[in-house]
Each structure stands twice: as C-alpha cells, then as structure tokens.
Amino acid sequence: RGVQAHRLCPPRGAGSSLEPEERSMEPPAVPEEEEEEEGAVPLSMAPGPVGCQLFGYVGIEAVLDQMKIKTMKTGFEFNIMVVGQSGLGKSTMVNTLFKSKVSRKSSQPGQEERIPKTVQLQSITHVIEEKGVKMKLTVTDTPGFGDQINNENCWDPIIKYINEQYERYLREEILITRKRKIPDTRVHGCVYFVPPTGHWLRPLDLEFMRRLSKIVNVVPVIAKADTLTLEERAEFKQRIQENLKTHAISVYPQEDFDQDSEDRALNDRIREKIPFAVVGADQEHQVNGKRVLGRKTKWGIIEVENPAHCEFPLLQDLLIRSHLQDLKDITHNVHYESYRVRRLNESNQLG
Asked: Is the pLDDT of residue 58 over 90?
C-alpha cells in the first residue's frame, strides 16, 4: 500500500501544489489513464477459467434430481383458454389433449343448446397425475364468442378476464407478507379455433388475434380440419400465414423470444406449420388390432394421433411435451411483466 502511494505521488517541482507533509490519509485515486495503460483488473472482476476440469466427482448433476423430486411433490399449474365459435369442437379438443374429461360440454345429447347473448367465461379446474407428476389444470371456455349477429367488442370480456388474473397475481406479489407460493391463475396459452372456411381469415379473427397476442400467447388452429381436402387445407394455411404477416400479428412461438440458434431452428419448423389443422375425438375405435382415438366416417376412420391424417400431434407436442414450460416463462417474464410495469406506472402517476 505504501509503495503504491509513493509511486502515484507526483514528484516535487512537477507543478503539484500538494506537499508530502500535507498528504491525505485517504487511499489515493488511480487515474483512468494509468488503469488503461497497466490493464489492472480488480479481483472481483477477474475472469475465471471456462470449463474448469474437475479432479473428481462433485455431484453437481444431482441438482436436476433435486428439482425433479421437488416438482413431483409440489406439482405445477397450467392454465389454458379455448376461444372460438360454438360447434367447432373446443371441449372435445381439450379432452383429447389431456385424454380425460377435463372440459365438460355445454349441452347434453338430445338437448338443444342455447347460445348465450353475451360472451361468458367458464373455468374448470382438475388435478391430473401421470407417473407421479401432478398438474393443476384450469380450462377456460368462452361460450358465446362470435355467435351473435353483431360481434362488436366481443373480445372485451376475454381481455378483462386475462387482465384480472394478472391483477390478482400482482396484488399477492406486492404484499409485505407474501405467500410462499403465490397461486397462479394467469392464462398461459390461448388456443384460437379458426372455422374451416377454406378462404381467408375473417375480420373478427384478425381483430381478436391482433388484440390478444399482445397480452397472452395465442396459438391458432384450424378446427375440424377433416372437412377440408389436403389441397384445400394447404391453401387455407398459406392464406392464414399471409394474413398474419400482412397485419403484423405475432402468434406463439414469437420470433422475438427465441433465445439461441437451436430454439430458433426448432420454432421455425413450428411456425411453418401454424395454424395446426386439427381433428378432435374422444372415442376409441379398433384399427388393425389397436385401439386408437378417432372419428368414424363412411369412408374410414380419421386417426387423431396419426400425423398423416391431421396435425393434432404437433399441437399436443407444442402445448404439453416441448413448450409447456416456455409458455409459462413467456407469460411471467413478458406478458405479466409488461402489465406489472404499466400498473405500477399508473400508481406512481396517481400518487
């Protein structure tokens, strides 16, 4: 320390007004020019060796097992919303996704279904378990959406519901004494059912996805794709992709949120297939000695889980097997974060 102070002290006669007897007891400040010349790096900022070779087994990989055990004990939550006109098979599709009766149908067989005058939201929560992993699944249906003659602002109740779940989570988060685990009712994914018209997207479809894609992960699908031929389905998908690109509508998975080249390559293959042409069925049939989920017609059986028949397996992989955690992460880090910042800014302005 003394050597450094002596070296940095300006020599006598060099134009300095500070004499050695009047030197301060504070540690001398190092000029920026000398730091750059000498290339001195503080110990806290010194880079360490990358990929350090260990001399023996430490057990770092056991962290993954610890996380798995903890997740299996506590379980996790997943909230999905289905939006579309009546009769497009939303409830059947959700039951097919999770292979259980998690979404009840709006009417019983033999009874006439009454279309609600306004959009109503119905949420059903189930706890499903597979191989020891528990998932609290909440399915939100939107009966009445797009069923009226005048569908102006029919998306307002849906936007209000999504924001209410963000607000509920925010109120729990800003409490002085917070819960150890905040109940998560935020919508992680919204599956939008496009009618299989074979033409272009309707103004209702475009306006809904334009508004909702800013606050939630929207995954568009072509409902009841078995009503279209393969050629009609390919042309319809191409037109929908052109519509989304023309109107700058970013559906999930969004290009802006790809983290690395591997994610981008995987998501590019998914984006080429969107919207998925899906077929839902909750009944099993016998095909070549095997029990398969499918729809029985006069000309054969449409196998739901056969990629040659429909793209339901791609939707199932996206929502559950490959991107479920990513849906939750983007909801928390992007959509909820933007809502939180906006609400706190509003509170500061009012204050």
From this structure: no
**46 occurs within a structural domain:** no
Question: 188-224 pLDDT, tens per residue?
Answer: 999 999 999 888 899 999 999 999 999 999 999 999 9
Residue 296 domain flag: yes
- Give the integer Cα–Cα distance in Å for 172 and 176: 9
Peptide bond into 275 cis (omega under 30): yes
- Write the DSSP symbol of residue 251: P
Domain membership of residue 328 (yes or no) is yes
Q: Which two tokens stand for residue 38?
A: 């000498």
The domain tally of the chain equals 1
Three-class secondary structure of residue 49 per DSSP: coil
Residue 31 lies in a domain: no
Residue 15 binned pLDDT confidence (cut-offs 50, 70, 90): very low
Compute the Cα dihedral for 273, 276, 277, 282 and give only its sign.
positive
The C-alpha atoms of residue 57 and residue 207 are separated, in whole angstroms, by 57
State which residues form the domain around 86: 61-103+115-349
CA dihedral 103, 105, 109, 113 (to 10 degrees): 180
